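Form 7-S
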Amino acid sequence: MFFAAYVGPSMNPTLRGPELMEIVPYDNRPSRVGDVVFFLPPQRDQPIVHRIVRVTPEGISTLGDNNTREDAFLLQPMDIKGRVVAVSRGGKRREIAGGLRGQLTSRWLRWRRVVDRRVSRLLHPPYRALSHWGLIAWLLPASFRPRIVVFQTHGQDQIRLLLGQHVIGRYDHQQRQWEIQRPFRVFVDERVLHRQQDENRTRLPGWIEDSEP
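Output:
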């Protein structure tokens, strides 16, 4: 068994960064559809964690639980370093379903996304209006407001937004924008977030409670 940190949105809500993953090598056991696996994609040196959705003679196909398209590459057994069996954060450990249970979990998440998109078409306009004006965020007491935290992975700052102990958003450095989960965007004034990012912050190892937007 070995351990690795998970970051990124592609396996939400099954995995949420930053969590510490417990990974068990397959050894001589076959890969199963439904397993969440840690692997090195062909011709890349950055590991990925996704779920196996198909096993064929040509290779193994994977898909992130939060993605809509299968990965563009096929894996070979040697590419897969192990199966994610559990994750932990803040002293709490939870198991990650694989095999048949993993398949059912994946199907449920896909069905939920379809329903969510249809409902979102109706609720999107008022939701965006509330988020844009920031009225709810302004009315919240300071103790209930989300806070920005910073930690480092592979020498790079990762910026997250927490409400209590729950990660509700992440800052995408490439797109230079915040990705905030619904319905929590109504609790956040993004103008304040961007202003606070421009301010000097004290950075220490691990989690850092920088500010409250």
